[in-house]
Amino acid sequence: MKKYDVIVIGSGPAGYVCAIRCSQLGLRTACVEGRETLGGTCLNVGCIPSKALLHASHMLHEAKDNFGKLGIKCQKPAVDWQSMRKYKEETISQNTKGIEFLFKKNKVDWLQGWGSIPAPGKVAVGKETFDTTHIVIASGSEPTTLKGVDIDEKRVVSSTGALELAKIPKKLTVIGAGVIGLELGSVYSRLGSEVTILEYLDAITPGMDQEIQKSFLRILTKQGLKFILGAAVQTVTTTKTSAKTSFQCKGGDSIETLGSDVVLVATGRKPVTRELGLETLGVACSGSGQIQVDDTWQTNIKGIYAIGDCVAGPMLAHKGEDEGMALAEHLSGAHGHVDYNIIPSVIYTHPEVASVGMTEDQLKATNQAYKVGKFNFMGNGRAKANFAADGFVKILADKDTDCILGCHIIGPSAGDLIHEVCVAMEFGASAEDLALTCHAHPTYSEAVREAALACGTGAIHA
Ligand code: NAD
């Protein structure tokens, strides 16, 4: 039987990137995947299908609300849900087949089946056991639910079921105003559902910059989403045709209820590590089920590593990819590095929200002296022309050194704009460095430069 240098368990963004990189660096590599297609949650039931539906529903919104303003006349647009779902499926298929192609091109063997680790240096897949020097666990995460709320993926759905609904619900209740709740809530709101989002905290998008949170809430409310904040969901009961969500509002004694056709539970995700044999091996995990690793992603068992959603850190595809690449470098004898302080996060609603580095709250908590440069998209010519002037760019810089400490954007293409700030931060740039960099006109990027100018002597178009 073929002996491998590396066997990666799981083909999500962390696993498949690690496997490809290992092979590129000369290691004999296989990747174990039990799904029928490669790509894990992200490509099959996460990032990619949700972005397809966000795009399609945004196009519907543009056709309904903005085409007329642009002087484009067309018949009243209508949704053909089956065709929209087909477009989503085709998008998934193109991407998952793309990984299959990359595996062949880079000579990564796909071991089809669910993997487990009977002993260090051995990976079992179905009836076969393979020998390997290194094992990389990249087994990902799955949705959590609440006590009293059972997910049946039909009437009470996780993000997976929400991407597969047989029809567009008239009323949708979303539990949790985090990334998933807001992205999928936006999709169905644009497609015509009456969407109510119940959030336990007093703000949406926990952990985000507070000014962004407030602006985002105002914009989404204007778009028609309803929010009930400070609402602790207790139970969801279902009939054949409907669901009833019970919740208690902060400070109130009474239990309130909300009826809907479908309930989306978006209250977080947890690592998937069962059936890998970790307990028998003695691999150390935290109380929340994350596999514990050192700074080379090695577990407490020599030769067994873990990356992506199943270890600590933000559950983001790109964080997993970076860990995959860095670990591959390390396993090939080079040095791999991930800068955990500069991992951008993006919410793909319209407008988009993007963030990197420290928030003001974090800077205050660490008594760091900082200054703020802010610029509204209202002062950006391109944004005004495109009816996309809602939002702003906010840059936080060290008060003394002017070094960029964080950036928070709500506005058009925020998810792309954030990266010039990430690069600047990687190079230890000051806000002035960004401000003195020529930015093409007319682009949304000029708003980033203006925010950088606002950290110093002031923006031009404010
Ligand atoms: P989340 O942790 O982002 O948000 C969950 C929300 O549910 C929180 O606001 C929490 O306060 C609320 N909540 C918890 N219990 C509640 C209760 N009983 N009643 C009401 N509200 C309650 O989780 P998520 O949105 O499910 O996302 C899961 C993970 O997937 C996150 O780590 C996220 O970063 C990742 N993800 C990222 C993207 C992206 O990068 N665009 C997209 C999808 C998912």
Estimate the global geometry from the Cα principal axes. Answer: globular
Bound molecules: nicotinamide-adenine-dinucleotide
Low-confidence stretches: none
Report helical residue fraction.
Answer: 25-40%
For the sheet with most strands, the description reads:
7 strands, mixed
Q: Structural class of the helices, strands and pairings?
A: alpha/beta
Head-to-tail CA distance between termini: 68 Å
- Distinct helical segment count: 14
Radius of gyration: 23 Å
In short:
This protein is α/β, with parallel strands linked by helices. The protein has helices at 13-24, 40-45, 47-66, 81-105, 159-162, 179-190, 210-222, 278-281, 317-331, 360-365, 381-385, 414-426, 431-435, 446-454; strands spanning 3-9, 29-33, 109-112, 115-119, 122-125, 128-137, 141-143, 156-157, 171-175, 194-199, 226-229, 231-238, 243-249, 255-260, 262-265, 269-271, 304-306, 345-347, 352-357, 370-376, 392-398, 404-411. The chain binds nicotinamide-adenine-dinucleotide.
Description:
Strand 21 (392-398) and strand 22 form a beta hairpin. Helix 3 packs across helix 6 (179-190). The chain has 14 helices and 22 strands. The protein is α/β, with parallel strands linked by helices. It is 32% helix and 25% strand. The N and C termini lie far apart (68 Å). Strands 1, 2, 3, 4, 5, 6 and 17 form a seven-stranded mixed sheet that branches. The mean pLDDT is 97. The protein has helices spanning 13-24, 40-45, 47-66, 81-105, 159-162, 179-190, 210-222, 278-281, 317-331, 360-365, 381-385, 414-426, 431-435, 446-454; strands spanning 3-9, 29-33, 109-112, 115-119, 122-125, 128-137, 141-143, 156-157, 171-175, 194-199, 226-229, 231-238, 243-249, 255-260, 262-265, 269-271, 304-306, 345-347, 352-357, 370-376, 392-398, 404-411. Nicotinamide-adenine-dinucleotide (NAD) binds at residues 146, 175-181, 183, 198-201, 206, 231-233, 266-269, 314-316, 345-348.
